[in-house]
């Protein structure tokens, strides 16, 4: 048995933990590069909150409002993205991020309707990036890893917005005059349908 298997995940070095998560998701990475990137960041963030909680303790955490909020948001995002819906796949798999090559769209509720209150997929990924950035100064050993993952998510969201704008413009421009008259659409409406406010 290796040393990594004997230690709890939150006791591993940043390099060891990143390698462990990467190995765990290796099979999915080729076909789902975006969602595995988000899942990797989520996993690292969740375990970093455990490390920070054990290092600082609840009393010190209560004294740092930004940290307390980040830990709470990380827990919420973990529950949101990995929640089982009536035996279906996890929510992170319900969004067609990888099939179209970028993050877009809205989460669905149990009846298949848009769950607007959860926020759009790009909003949730941007929030996860902000949480990781907030956590980074509180974990000296994992801080650089948290920053790196936050920057990666921000890059994915920025790229997603560019691709969404191209798709939205193409849809608006391809609209015939009759459709423009009966069902007019705009760049803003098309971007909103893709989850960009």
Architecture overview:
With 197 residues, the protein is mainly α. Helix content is 68%, strand content 0%. The protein is built from eleven helices and no strands. It has helices spanning 3-6, 14-24, 26-29, 33-62, 65-82, 91-94, 97-100, 121-135, 143-173, 177-182, 187-193. It is elongated.
Q: Which structural category fits the helices and strands?
A: mainly alpha
> What distance separates the N and C termini?
49 Å
Whole-angstrom Rg: 19 Å
Strand content: under 5%
Low-confidence stretches: 85-89
Q: Name the quaternary structure.
A: single chain
- Backbone shape: elongated
Share of helix, binned: 55-70%
Number of helices: 11
User: N-to-C SSE series?
Assistant: HHHHHHHHHHH
Please tally the β strands and state the result.
Answer: 0
**Average pLDDT, to the nearest integer?**
85
The largest sheet, given as strand count, sense and whether it forms a barrel, is:
none
Keywords:
mainly alpha, 11 helices, elongated, about 200 residues
């Amino acid at each position: 048995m290796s040393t990594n298997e004997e230690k709890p995940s939150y006791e591993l070095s940043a390099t060891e933990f990143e390698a462990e998560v990467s190995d765990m998701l290796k099979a999915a990475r080729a076909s789902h590069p975006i969602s595995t990137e988000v899942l990797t960041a989520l996993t690292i963030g969740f375990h970093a909150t455990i490390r920070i909680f054990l290092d600082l303790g609840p009393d010190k955490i209560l004294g740092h409002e930004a940290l307390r909020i980040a830990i709470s948001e990380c827990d919420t995002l973990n529950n949101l993205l990995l929640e089982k819906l009536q035996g279906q796949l996890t929510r992170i798999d319900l969004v067609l991020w990888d099939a179209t090559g970028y993050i877009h769209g809205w989460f669905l509720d149990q009846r298949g309707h848009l769950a607007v209150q959860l926020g759009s997929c790009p909003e949730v990924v941007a929030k996860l990036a902000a949480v990781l950035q907030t956590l980074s100064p509180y974990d000296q050993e994992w801080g650089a890893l948290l920053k790196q993952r936050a920057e990666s998510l921000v890059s994915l969201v920025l790229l997603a917005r560019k691709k969404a704008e191209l798709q939205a413009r193409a849809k608006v421009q391809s609209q015939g005059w009759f459709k423009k008259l009966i069902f007019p659409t705009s760049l803003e409406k098309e971007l909103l349908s893709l989850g960009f406010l």
